[in-house]
Amino acid sequence: ATPTALMVGTGRGAQLGILIKGPEVLESTRAVDTIVLDKTGTVTTGSMTLTGVLLADGVEEGDVLRLAGALEHASEHPVARAVAAGAADRVGELPAVDGFTNLPGLGVEGVVDGRTVLVGREQLLRDRSQPLPPELVRAKAAAEAGGGTAVAVGWEGRARAVLVVADAVKPDSAEAVRRLRALGLRPVLLTGDNAAVAAAVAAEVGIDAADVHAEVLPEEKVAVIRRLQAESRTVAMVGDGVNDAAALAQADLGLAMGTGTDAAIEAGDLTLVRGDLRVAADAIRLARRTLTTIK
Ligand code: ADP
Ligand code: MG
């Protein structure tokens, strides 16, 4: 590859809304045959809204919203933003938080009104001896079957509620997956979210059920990329979150959503400036064409 031809590719990339770290990046896209897509914020809009408050027997909705809303107000996670905004809408001003711990890929913990509150995955509450009571297990399963992301809320030794947030698939994601397939790439969905939500999103955009990896903790995302590489695949990864940074760095080609976090953008080789997933296909086509021209 001659430097001049690669520079032309880089300039064309800028026109398409692709920022390329260096011309040599185009070379590493040549052999890409698999493209791993993060779900939240990449395939979906990532702007979730609170759509349901499911209560354990005897629990007041106002208490749940005040405590969970206050705690989530301190977190930047898309689920947290939805919970905090929905709670503020329904109950008004939220109380202050004393201690706050972010538990990446699991949830948050903190002290509100003198009570230690947990909000996050069911597994997080179970690990703290706050298993969901049967009525919440049933309600949560129904919400997830409907495509919602359900997070549990607990305090003082008891799971109290399940909050349901929903996130829409971006209107262009299915088209993006079609274009990636047309280039001969195998699309894979990777998410920390639950299996039911992941399956619904995969079906909507055209990713095979066998290529869905759900309930993956942030540090395990790298392992999924490594496992695919161990199968002799050359892997591109598209992501937006702090949680995706290590996986973007591990991938043979890391594509960061320009609408995502600085950590993802720093870890990626390319940035899709407008956060348009269809441009991922343009980037790969551009790299291939640039390299063919210079042969
Ligand atoms: P993704 O891989 O889809 O971007 P994450 O790895 O960030 O998702 O999170 C995985 C799951 O952990 C979320 O779907 C949610 O259930 C839970 N979670 C993470 N952070 C929070 C939070 N601040 N509040 C509630 N739940 C959270
Ligand atoms: Mg994400």
Describe it for me?
By secondary structure, the protein is of the alpha/beta class. It has two domains: 3-45 and 169-293, Rossmann fold, CATH 3.40.50; 49-166, Calcium-transporting ATPase, cytoplasmic domain N (3-Layer(aba) Sandwich), CATH 3.40.1110.10. The chain has 13 helices and 13 strands. It has helices spanning 3-16, 25-28, 39-43, 61-72, 78-91, 122-127, 134-145, 173-182, 195-205, 218-230, 245-250, 262-267, 278-293; strands at 18-20, 34-38, 49-55, 97-103, 107-112, 115-120, 149-155, 158-166, 186-190, 212-213, 235-239, 253-257, 270-272. The protein has a seven-stranded mixed β-sheet with strand order 1-13-12-11-2-9-10, sandwiched between helices. The longest helix is centred in the last third of the chain and has 16 residues, at 278-293. The model has no long low-confidence stretch (mean pLDDT 92). The structure holds adenosine-5'-diphosphate and magnesium ion (MG). Adenosine-5'-diphosphate binds next to helix 3, helix 5, strand 5, strand 6 and strand 7.
